[in-house]
Amino acid sequence: MKTVEHPLAVAYLEAVAREAATLAPERRNELLADLTEHIAVAFAEQPACNEEEVKAVLDRLGDPRTIVATAREGETIAPPVSKWHSHAPLILLPVAGLLGGVNLVLGGIAMIAGVVLLWAAPHWSRRDKIIGTAATLPVPIALVGIAFTAATTGPLDPGLLTLVAPSVLVPAAASVYLFRAGRRMSS
Fold first, then answer.
1. Burial of 42 (0-12, 13-18, 19+ CB in 10 A)
2. Which of 56, 143, 148, 169 lies at a C-alpha separation of 20 to 30 Å from 25?
3. DSSP characters over 4-26
């Protein structure tokens, strides 16, 4: 039996793998490969014939928790993205134009919140964020147009629909794009 396949060595590597579950997959695989190589080299230099000798080699490597803690020191751990954080910009961006047709302040707040949440989300690329932000440009233009139109013609003017429609449809199209891009990034 190869000593790397020894039940104690396998159990040791499994313990390291459990402890390293929060590491990035590449880092975890690298750590396990390095440890496997260290074990193989140690057993090649001094063959382990019994359990005490295998335990001695594994003890020299160190405690699995300590090994993983050391590996974790230089790594930044990205917090998991909540469902709310990933869906909020997709909802707020098109709703901003709709709210702008009702209340300019609410529309502006929804637009700003949607763009801020979009840029804070780690699961979209920079290109996707730029596209999403550019798609919100019709919203402030429409909000200003709505304010001028409502001030001069009244709040129920049919011309308002021509301003509200692009401020909802363009961000809605961007939301669909971002939704698909987010799914591609996560898969």
1. buried
2. 56
3. GGSHHHHHHHHHHHHHGGGS-HH
CA-to-CA dists, residue 20 to 16, 25, 73, 96, 99, angstroms: 6, 9, 12, 43, 47
62: left (phi over 0), alpha (psi -120 to 50) or beta: left
CB atoms within 10 A of CB 134: 11
The two structure tokens encoding residue 170: 């363009």
CA separation for the pair 22, 68 (Å, rounded): 10
Instruction: Give CA–CA dist 47/42, Å, rounded.
Output: 8
Residue partners of 6: CB distance under 8 A and separation at least 6: 48, 54
Instruction: Kindly report the number of other CB atoms within 10 A of residue 19's CB atom.
Output: 20
What are the tokens at 3? Answer: 């000593």
> Are 120 and 134 in contact, with CB atoms under 8 Å apart?
no
Residue 63 has pLDDT above 50, yes or no: yes
